[in-house]
Write a structure and sequence with these properties.
Distance between the termini of chain B: 15 Å
Largest sheet of chain B: none
Oligomer: heterodimer
Helix content of chain B: 55-70%
Number of strands of chain A: 9
Number of helices of chain B: 20
Shape of chain B: globular
Order of helices and strands of chain A: HHEEHHHEHHEHEHEEHHHHEHHEHH
Radius of gyration of chain B: 24 Å
Strand content of chain A: 5-15%
Largest interface: A-B, 29 and 29 residues
Largest sheet of chain A: 5 strands, parallel
Chain lengths: 342, 483
């Protein structure tokens, strides 16, 4: 009996020592993380994030700009040549592009159009942004005087990498205007610890399970898209369609085939899944995969970083022009009363 | 495989569980350790196992030949030559090609040249073994598989500590083998401390200073004072390498092997000589035993001693890599050592060293700062292997703009606070560990479980913090893995 009591007492004392040491080391660590949250943790801190930004919450796209001035100041360098927007819109039937580097990087599609079609006004902002921010830019620009003949929104699997792991519902714009994400919680008593302790939140974030879709893998974007992710994307594009319709501007979604799709035999699931959904919300879809996949020298249409080279961009432009011609022809064939922007 | 990636943790867990399951079965336990070590080494590049095994075959055969007196001198010479020639081929071919062909096109692609990891360490282990067998300070290992385990045991395979043959081989013999964990408390403390130093401190410093060193000769860093960055690099390399040693020693203890310490607060040295008694102690010991002393050591007068010192340090520098800057690093340390030897013989040095009280304290403080400055100066050539960049870094020690004294990564308050916090906590932790093992505590049975609990708590908290506080993203490899 005495031996048992001694063992129990020894274990208790050892446990107390263990807890005491953990407390003594973890308490300063908690304080440290409160004072200096690591960069990769800040986007999960909600309104406690020290980051500041130019955004505001938005009903359509989860993130938006609080004002025209906020967008203008954040993109001033590139925007300068289009200001005032009304004047640019009066220059002629312009094309406005929103997309990734395939569209706006030097010598890519927009520069190719400027070079090949010098009379065609082209608008693009020239910076890679998360997809919801791209949508928000489109909305604010249309509301503040941009009036192109047509809007082109380019979309590739790579554009959905962030949204793949962070659903729209997890986006939270802080009081300071930073774009953050609500962490996914494991449920049970751990929720309390994660919500109240930086140490616990950091540990949770280090596991990678804090993301809205923690098991998302970019490979799924070309194999089998998560239905929830597809719904999020369609929500955004339905928002674009609605905003564009309000301003009477037609929209074309550019689904550019990737190198993997063209040269490595990766299926075009991305295009096959999204194109019908986009059409269902009233958007025109441009899918030039046949022209690229059937090209006799398709492997030579790229520069080393797998963007299109000059020949690839020219092919893309010619296909786009042909697509627009077809659209015009079909619009002309329709009775006038049934025409509407697509 | 490195110590910070998931497959390594899985491997250790599996090997450790099997090793525990087979407790009491000497051969089976060592076989598990051997298989684990081969998986560790061949995980990414299985062909490297052939190189490792070739080294083992040659060294083991040479050891046996020496022991059996079959042309021992020839066996030793050919064994050592094999180790050095193969090592030199892998390590110095790019340097030779670049030097011979200059700016012209090399005969083959040397940019993609990869040095087999750990080759220096197992070559040194082999040389030490053959020389000691020749000197009769170690008996030749009759069993090949045991020799392979001695050479390739995964905790110390890649970056040491560089053991004297008897330090490990004796523990592998049936008589010396324990087959159970040795001091699990120490093992977990070393693992906790090692991972904390690597993941929280060294990698944080790396993230702060790497951009500066990448652009040290660019206009982007014009006018920036380089000293804070060099000091941070000095801390980084110490924390990174000593973390590796802690983890290696901790793993060794976990499997029942005890190895010597490799670092003893080297930046508290008050002379370069003392620095080398505190820094990478097992390499210093190796260079002394197998290079400096065979060259004649200090037995042939002052001039020969200085030549031997310089030769040892130059070769020690060149061992680190195929670059003239490593040679320069070794040369600087050789020069500092010679200057130090000359200085201590002067009357002024003798007078200062004989003082006590405030003069002595001030002199020690000055010596400490001067030694650290010399070490930092040499680190510039170690960190930046392009000579022009090293010189640009040294130039920025003295020529800088007053507005750019502390900018960029070196100005991160959070980093300095973290380092200061660690510096304050280390003496307390060490005192606690010493106290936990002291005789005084054994006499106070009521307090002992509390202190033991505290010790385990410290180790657990350090491991947890290593995971939580490490910078996110891809983990930086250990610096010494490249050597």
């Amino acid at each position: 009996m005495d031996a048992g009591r001694t063992t129990w007492r020894r274990r208790t004392l050892r446990g107390l020592g263990f807890i005491l040491a953990c407390g003594l080391l973890l308490a300063p660590a908690e304080l440290y993380l409160r004072l200096f949250p690591p960069v990769d943790l800040r986007e999960f801190l909600g309104d406690e994030s020290p980051d500041a930004g130019v955004f505001a919450a938005d009903e359509d796209f989860a993130v938006g700009y609080p004002s025209w001035a906020a967008l203008r100041d954040d993109n001033l360098q590139r925007l300068q040549s289009y200001l005032p927007l009304e004047d640019w819109s009066r220059r002629g039937p312009g094309w406005a592009f929103f997309g990734n580097s395939f569209v706006h990087a030097p010598d890519m599609l927009c520069d190719t159009i400027r070079r090949e079609l010098p009379d065609q006004p082209v608008f693009n902002l020239g910076r890679n942004e998360p997809l919801p921010v791209r949508c928000a830019q489109l909305k604010v620009l249309l509301e503040n005087g941009l009036k192109p003949e047509r809007i082109f929104v380019e979309l590739m699997p790579v554009d959905l990498i962030v949204m793949g792991s962070q659903p729209l519902s997890t986006i939270h714009v802080t009081e300071r205007g930073a774009l953050t994400y609500a962490p996914r919680l494991p449920g049970g008593p751990l929720d309390w610890a994660i919500e109240n302790s930086r140490l616990a939140l950091t540990a949770w974030c280090r596991t990678g399970l804090q993301k809205g879709r923690p098991f998302f893998h970019r490979r799924s974007l070309v194999r089998k898209l998560d239905p929830d992710l597809v719904d999020d994307v369609v929500t955004l594009f339905a928002g674009i369609a609605r905003v564009a319709r309000e301003h009477d501007v037609p929209v074309t979604v550019l689904l550019i085939p990737s190198h993997d799709c063209m040269c490595r035999g990766v299926p075009c699931t991305f295009q096959d899944t999204l194109a019908p959904r986009f059409r269902a919300v009233g958007l025109d879809v441009f899918d030039p995969r046949d022209a690229f996949c059937n090209h006799p020298r398709k492997g030579q249409l790229f520069i080393p970083d797998l963007h299109f080279n000059k020949e690839g961009n020219l092919l893309l432009l010619h296909e786009l022009q042909a697509h627009l011609q077809r659209l015009k022809a079909s619009a002309a064939a329709q009775p006038t009363s049934t025409r509407k922007p697509t | 495989m490195t110590f910070t990636e998931l497959p390594f943790f899985v491997l250790v867990l599996i090997v450790w569980m099997l090793w525990r399951l087979l407790a009491g079965q000497y051969r089976a336990q060592l076989a598990i350790l051997l298989i684990g070590s081969l998986v560790f080494y061949g995980y990414r590049h299985p062909l490297l196992l052939l190189l490792l095994l070739a080294y083992c075959v040659v060294n083991w055969w040479a050891g046996l030949s020496i022991a059996k007196n079959r042309w021992p001198r020839l066996a030793l010479t050919s064994g050592v030559a094999f180790n050095l020639v193969v090592l030199a081929y892998w390590k110095y071919t790019p340097l030779v090609i670049r030097t011979v062909f200059g700016d012209g096109p090399p005969p083959f692609d040397i940019d993609g040249w990869v040095i087999p990891f750990g080759i220096s360490f197992y070559a040194f282990t082999g040389i030490a073994y053959m020389v000691d067998v020749y000197r009769r300070t170690t008996t030749a290992e009759p069993e090949f598989w045991r020799y392979v385990l001695y050479s390739a045991f995964f905790p110390q395979l890649v970056a040491g500590p560089i053991l004297r043959p008897h330090e490990f081989l004796d523990q592998l013999q049936p008589a010396g083998y324990r087959g159970r964990r040795k001091s699990p408390f120490d093992a977990f403390f070393l693992l906790g401390r090692g991972y904390f130093k690597k993941a929280v401190l060294a990698d944080r410093i790396s993230a702060a200073i790497d951009p500066f060193f990448a652009h040290v000769a660019d206009p982007t860093t014009a006018g920036v004072w380089s000293l804070p960055y060099v000091v941070l690099y000095a801390l980084q390399i110490y924390l990174d390498f000593s973390a590796y040693t802690d983890i290696a020693r901790g793993l060794g203890l976990l499997f029942g092997f005890e190895w010597p310490e490799n670092f003893n607060l080297p930046y508290l040295a008050t002379s370069i000589q003392e620095f080398w008694h505190r820094w990478h102690m097992t390499l210093s010991r190796f260079l002394k035993d197998y290079l400096y002393i065979p060259l004649g050591g200090n037995r042939h007068g002052a001039w020969r001693t200085h030549v031997n010192l310089m030769a040892t340090m130059l070769l020690g520098g060149l061992w680190h890599g195929a670059s003239w800057s490593f040679l320069l690093w070794g040369g600087l340390h050789g020069s500092f050592l010679i200057l130090n030897r000359l200085w201590v013989k002067t009357p002024a040095a003798r007078w200062l060293n004989a003082q006590t009280g405030p003069i002595r304290v001030a002199w020690n403080g000055f010596s400490l700062v001067l030694t650290f400055a010399c070490v930092c100066l040499a680190w510039c050539f170690f960190r930046l292997t392009v000579l022009a960049e090293s010189l640009a870094c040294v130039q920025k020690w003295v020529i800088f703009e007053s507005g750019k004294i502390l900018v960029g990564g070196a100005a991160e308050l959070s980093l300095w606070l973290l380092l200061a916090g660690y510096a304050c906590a280390v003496p307390l932790l060490h005192r606690l560990v010493d106290w936990a093992k002291s005789a005084e505590l054994r006499e106070r049975p009521g307090l002992r479980p509390v202190v033991q609990g505290v010790g385990w708590g410290v180790s657990f908290a350090l491991l947890l913090l290593a995971f939580v506080l490490s910078p996110g993203g891809e983990k930086a490899p250990f610096i010494y893995f490249q050597f």
